[in-house]
Amino acid sequence: MKIIVCIKQVPDTTEIKINPVTGTLVRDGVPSIINPDDKSGLEAALSLKDEFGSHVTVITMGPPQADAVLREALAMGADDAILLTDRKFAGADTLATSNALASALKKMEWDLIIAGRQAIDGDTAQVGPQIAEHLDIPQISYTEEVKYDGKSLFTIKKQTEEGYQILEAQAPLLLTVLSSANKPRYMNVRGIVEAIDKEVKVLGVADIGADESKMGLKGSPTKVHKAFSKGVKSAGEQFEVEAEEAVGIIISKLKEKFII
Amino acid sequence: MNFELNKKQQLFKQMIREFADKEIQPIAAEIDENETFPVESVKKLAKYGVMGIPVPVQYGGAGGDNIMYSIAVEELSRVCGTTGVIVSAHTSLCVAPILEFGTEDQKKKYLPKLAGGEWLGAFGLTEPNAGTDASAQQTTAVEEEDAYVLNGSKIFITNGAHADVYIVFAMTDKSAGIRGITAFIVERDTLGFSTGKQELKLGIRGSSTCELIFENCRIPKENLLGKVGKGFSIAMKTLDGGRIGIAAQALGIAQGAIDETVKYTKERKQFGRSIAQFQNTQFQMADLYTKTEASRLLVRSAAYKKDSGIPYSTDAAMAKLFASETAMEVTTKAVQFHGGYGYTREYPVERMMRDAKITEIYEGTSEVQKMVIAAKMFK
Amino acid sequence: MDLSSYKDVFVFVEQREGVIQSVAIELLGKARDLADALGQNVVAIFPGSNISDKAKELGYYGADKVICIDTPELEHYITEQYTQAVYQVITEFKPSIVLFGATTIGRDLGPRLSARLETGLTADCTKLEISEEKELLMTRPAFGGNLMATIVCKEHRPQMSTVRPGVMRKLEKDTSRKCEIIEYSPKFNASKFKVKLVKSVKEAKGMVDISEAKILVSGGRGVGAEFKNLKDLANVLNAEVSASRAVVDAGVVSHDRQVGQTGKTVRPDLYLALGISGAIQHLAGMEESDFIVAINKDKYAPIFQVSDLGIVGDVTKIVPLLTERLSKVKLEK
Fold first, then answer.
1. What's this model's pTM, rounded to 2 decimal places?
2. What residue in C sits closest to A132 (Cα-Cα)?
3. What ipTM does the predicted assembly reach?
């Protein structure tokens, strides 16, 4: 079985801080990581590899530095890696991103495509389903568990608000996987030593034969009109008093607001 | 000249740091408190190839280098000194001498299992009357047909109670002095071999430190490590490499204490502001961080020389001397910055201070390191 | 693309086992605002099986028209079945705007449709408004809530977005409101139905929805081992207990009660933030609450920047006392 895992390099948003004076994002020194849901998707693929000897390819779209997350994926056990990088991909929204990835995927062989549910820098959860649509294959999102019968049938546990669903589908199939689906393995030392010397295939728009009008900013139906840091709500009253008095203040406020 | 880690080393550092933070740090206080050897941690380290970093792939290792190995010990020790020394003693004192001095058969027999972490390694040189003066070995090895028969005991052996393979030194010819010392590879279940008293220690309390006892213990001749009479030289060369490991352990402990202290002093408020804002804190911490970074450069320089086949004995001694004394200073001051809390087990700096002390003592005390360095200077 | 041929604000109305989901009612309320600003209609797309009798309800909450797709194929949500049905409605009726709930259904269907329609979709919007140019301005958090971005979809129609439950306000139910109901029968291509639903399982995980609560008693790291105190306080206030990520990660409270970027967005009438320092990810999930009371030891804690009433003090002392006093107030009544 051939599995392709779509991963994204993201800033570790838990490390991002706001400059309290200017209200702008402080991104200096914020590490770049494999998006957590994607890493979980990679683990799902590597588990299938452990059990069924599948071949795992990782693909990412991004600037040349995104090579780092591919090396990490190789060091975890992926067999090969593809980097889509081209100035013409820049400024892509989810639809343009999915068009680029789908164009590359159309030229490859696969039985299963795995993506993370969503990326922590955008939280859109769109690229996976959009790729599935472009490739005309079924999708199952919010995957918590993947079972494979070794031939062609996948049994998927999908998380829902109320609990979960069990769904069945044959390959070809696209899954989007939750971080909670598993605990990704670490890179292993031998994998690291080997990953550095492995060739990462680097492809541009021309290499994947994509329609340029559907790439990057040009191919993006949505555009950022403006971006701004969240206006901080002005602080209310603050009291530093003994417990007894504090309780009095709280109760009178709640009465005033008709909450009690 | 390049002071940057290469890509491979950087990627490894990212991996081992994440591993240490997620797998080792959460149990560090517990294994210290209960004095339990972290068997599960060793299994996990083995699974990811950390028990055989500088061992070539052909012998089942990861094919890494000694800089990576030093990073492993540093990062593990940053959160847990115990785990750091387990990896260090195993790699530097058992795996390395087999790799360096072993026959092809010995390498094929022992390295895959040791590098794969299936077996744990240890090293037996110190005796009750042979500490800093390691030449005063009283354990004897008498040739008898196809074997040597060992009698005697070793003390303070790191990994002692949990190891499967030991590099052991014994006198094959008392009249020859240090040229009468020979090295052997001893397997745990050899008849006549047993482990004795487990030491109760100030620090690195999760690690095993115990006595090894040899009573008419027959070691087959194929388990001679190196040539007869070359044991002392093997021991000294092995300890050179071991000092890189202990220096890295000390460095990690110092860095851990700095990280904890920076975090704490930013949070802790006295006189209306965080204590990190006081210049006394900043100046002292700047000094400590500078010394820690200097230790790091010494450690990496020694490891680099070992990787490059350049003599590194003095470098390793300097790295260990400086890093261990820095670790003791940093951790002592870290406790001071934490005030009363620092003296309690609520904060890890108390453990770090206890763990730091041993780095000035084992694998050659600070005084021994000075002897090594001075010998080079005044030869 | 002739943009002027697209009009009206459509809402995808999500139902589960025939129960209209709260988020759909919230979206109708917002759609009403948008449609009024455009001088257009609010249209509900209402797919499901045996649901026709509920269609008029949607009128009570703001829909002018309901396109009811009542067919056995749509009994359970499955991506392809729903995509085919909704795709046909959109291509036939040409809405200017389509809104979806940012649920496991809306976030699965929305992107699939956006790719089939080749139009944009903006995820998890917290604010929707109509610009002077009569375009939809879609504002959403990015970078884990650290940054807000306003997105537009100028040259493609429909303009689509998903909105998280609990963000928009429902209209008051008005049973005098009438709406037009259109029965719609899509043509399905069943050869594309490749995913089979084996079973749906409801897990009893307390089943509370904190985003529905009027009052939340929320605890953070500062509460320490005394989480029971919060439950007592919540009892007196008829409130639900919620928590910050730190407490959920520590296993003290289940994940469905987590407030914040990776948990739920809440906007209760009263939010009591107890021992919560107020990491940006937490603030993103609760700062829209009507009235926020924060108690924290650290007077510089970021939570105080969003609170209406801030108390610098020890939660473990204040909370039991507050519970005691509140039960007395209650008895007096």
1. 0.86
2. C112
3. 0.91
